[in-house]
Amino acid sequence: MIGPDAALARCHDLVELARAAGADAADAVASASSSESVSVRLGALEEVERSESEEIGLRVFVGRRSASIATSDFGGEGLRMLAQRAVEMARLAPEDPYGGLAPADALFQGDGVELELSDGAEPRPEDLRGAALATEDAARAVAGVTNSNGGSASASQSVFALVTSTGFARARAAGSHSLSASVVAGEGGDKQTDYAYRTQRHRSDLPDPAGIGREAGERAVRKVAPGLLPSGRMPVVFDPRVGGGIVGHLLGAMTGPAIARKASFLIDRENEQLFDNGIRIVEDPLRPRGLRSRNYDGEGIASVPRALVEGGRVTRWLTNVASAAQLDLPLTGHASRGSGGAPGVAPANVYMEPGTASAADLIADIEDGVYITDLFGHGVSLVTGDYSRGASGLRIRNGELAGPVAEITIAGTLPEMFRALVAADDLEFLRGIDVPTLRIDGMSVAGQ
Description:
Helix content: 10-25%
Number of domains: 2
Protein name: PmbA protein
Domain Metalloprotease TldD/E N-terminal: 26-90
Domain Metalloprotease TldD/E central: 122-223
Pfam families: PmbA_TldD_1st, PmbA_TldD_2nd, PmbA_TldD_3rd
GO molecular function, one term: metallopeptidase activity
Strand content: 35-45%
Strand order of the largest sheet: 3-2-1-4-5-6
Radius of gyration: 24 Å
Number of helices: 9
Order of helices and strands: HEEEHHEEEHEHHEEEHEEEHEEEHEEE
Largest sheet: 6 strands, antiparallel
Distance between the termini: 53 Å
């Protein structure tokens, strides 16, 4: 796989070729990745897979017109032809009054924070196999587990480089290590499947494989023999594994492009108290070893820790260059970038601060409710805020988790859900968006 310095050099060359072909401005993005994974099933080796990919993308501007193109052909003549085609495409494109590169005086400067995004480890296939077997073995050892979909262990490395004609030139390398297991519990017509996984930047930060396996097995077993749940309005409690999606919907509605397109239920709500005053949602892109950590965004703007929700209110829209220009707002360092196309918007390492009550205390006064462990479907509109998802989980009776329930639908509107949301104290940093256990009263539940 190409290294950061070589990726940076490719981007420099491509930007220079674009300028020579007639581009007024240009940026180039190079990405590369390699991964190795080992999968086992029922104690036997099932698959060993290794993959590598490299790509470079070019975005050019001719006046207010732009075009993007990407390739995996890194030969000198291939890159020259790519630059020429991109400029020709831009000359035929419609004018965009908002597109452009980040200005030089706004670009990230300095060395930034040491984010420790890679430990440089490349585990041997036999080490990955041993970890996968240990994870699956622990899951299969849980009483009630009757079959396995397998266990897996993987390691990956990646490189990202960005060069702009306005003077930005940086590259970064990152890595990750993962363990997972998926098993089946129950017999006959009542078979239930569940899983557990962990991903960390450093292999030493992964939990013991046995713990991940036990979690997968226990989650599957507790879903066996689901009962019926009556329809009605009731408290709904979200397991942290699925609760992060609620914050994800908020973030999607906070993006500058969504606001600019009038495609967000948050329009005209920027000064409204959406959550309880005690709810605080934070972004920390500079967290060492974070899964989405970065010193700068996909347009070269510094990434800065900040509160996204403070005192129950959103603090700002999340912008890239185009949406900032359209909305007449400052750049916030949230541009996301692939090899092709215009930049999008994505935050980094978002979490909801924990509350003061334990998860057990959060459900202690619920006479009849539901604890959600799985969500299905895509019935969420970020334009209207309507929320409707298929779900399964555990019934709550008299303050205790009771038997499993399945084939239910939970519904409401995101603004109503935000206002009713209460957070427990069990926050863990495991994903790109992390939340503690969440309780939302008064949701509509459709059972059987």
